[in-house]
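HTH lysR-type domain-containing protein
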Amino acid sequence: MLSTDDLLLIAALARSGKPAPAAAGLNVHLATVYRRLKELEQEAGAPLFQRLGGQYVPTPLGSELVRAAMGVEANLAEARRQLAGGEQRLAGRITLTTPDSLVPLVSTLLPPVRRKHAGICFDLVVSNTFADMARYEAEVAIRPTRAPPETLVGQRAGAFRYAIYVKSGTREDLPWIALDDSLSAIPAARWLAAHVAEEEIVLRVNSMWAAAQAAAAGLGRALLPDYLHRSFDLDRQGDFIGALESEVWLLIHPDLRRTPRIQAFMDLAAGRLRAQLKA
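Tokens:
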């Protein structure tokens, strides 16, 4: 008999294509994913996934189960949102997601909320990828973007700019700290790809925070958002790059608009975040 957990495992494995991220997304041990998949395939009498080029690809039978699993997952997420949306208490946990570069700013938003609403606690998911709010991976997303998804609602907290930064006091030309393929979709990565030759790159990172740390250590120069450099001993080189100006948004799923704890956080956080970005 298939359980809900089995279907969620199948959906997670189909979405990620690999057992390790599926296990992380389900918050279970990797061995559990391997063991339960083996048991499911034994029960079915046929493989549910093919192993192709390091990816787990659903078989025809697996594809049928994936469709069913996605439906169950969507229904569970809808039920959670409806439950949260009907909550009237100014208490409970709020799951926030934000990229590492915004953690210093986001962290300062939490104490004022706690001082005013001591019953609210937080889970902070630091990720450079956009959480699937429809699947309830997070309740509030605080993201740098010029084009927030149309499926979400929220507030624009302010704008920020990019510039090149080096360790304070540095005068000589330095090699570049660039972003790796995991961040290739963001405008800063595209700017670096267009303006920096491969032989000029001394380090590639998958994190803006890591780029800032490496620059502050004197390894090279990094293209960074202006709000991030305040956390490090860095000087700006040259002017701001106008083409890279972007925005920070606080975003939620529409079903959570009337949830008191979510609204209380949004009301306090938006203004404080806006003031920090202007500083």
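The mean pLDDT is 88.
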